[in-house]
What we know:
Elements: H1 7-16, H2 22-46, H3 49-54, H4 56-80, H5 85-88, H6 94-102, H7 105-122, H8 127-135, H9 146-157, H10 159-184, H11 195-206, H12 219-265, H13 273-286, H14 290-306
Helix pairs in contact: 1-2, 1-4, 2-4, 2-8, 4-7, 7-8, 9-12, 10-11, 10-12, 12-13, 12-14
Protein name: Ion transporter
Pfam family, one: Ion_trans
Domain Ion transport: 27-253
Amino acid sequence: MNEPQTLRQKIACLFEGTGQYQRSGHILDIALISIIMINVVAIVIESIPSVAEQYYYEFLVLEIVSVAIFAIEYLARLWACVDKTHYVAMEGSNSKRRLKYFLSPLALIDLIAILPSLMMFLFPLDLRFLRILRLLRVFKLTRYSRAMQLLLKAFNDEGSSLMAAFFIMAVVLILASCGIYLIEHDIQPDKFGSIPAAMWWAMATLTTVGYGDVVPITPLGKFFGGVITLLSMGMVAIPTGLLASSFSEQIRKRRQFFEDAVHESIQDGTLNDTQKEHLEELRHKLGLSKLEANKAIKTQLNEHNSHLFCRHCGKRP
């Protein structure tokens, strides 16, 4: 990797945490995570009227400082994104690359983190509504959490399968609502007076929550409710199983990718300082622990060196 020459390249490396900026990038991430957590705690505490009134100016200063920091971070990322590894290889102008970054999920989350406060200064909106929007700032942690990135990747990969599962659940929801409406409508018109009203019971039953505020009382209604409950046990497990399987597959792919990178780096049975630095950057980017990385490197070194010696006599061929 070439050393960054311009300020924009240095900022891109800082945000990516690569090369000589790995430690600085890690410190920056920790600082931003701390600010996000402080904001989340402050927004939650601010919902207490007495506390919000007593520390109004303190909360206001914290909000102004935080928005300023997040806005500078957002603009800096938008400016330097064209020099990030992912966008350098893209064809087209810098404007096209910035537009692609602007529409990316992480960039939109960064934008959501500052928009509510800007709206508060520009438009007279309900403060409770703005407080909830500001709480979405917690999603900025997605950028710094490898586990959240894996989960988002799992959602993306299993999108069509999840849509199919939710479609089936929606059909079962409608059938359950119609069935319980026909059975319990005459007995409990206040609770099952319409199919939309019956959907509350169907939703609570299908998700196995079972609040108990609306229940069938006729023998046929109880039997129908039992059938729906048994059916829901399998229905709820479908999306859960899909996500768990995809999450596990994402972890396996990252480990395999790192092992392949180690295999390509080993030429003479050893790793030089440049290769070790590259593998460390890759480990950090993939979100692997040092234990996993060291195990993969040791395994690949043993496999490589085993081919240099005869299995029978232990000497070089």
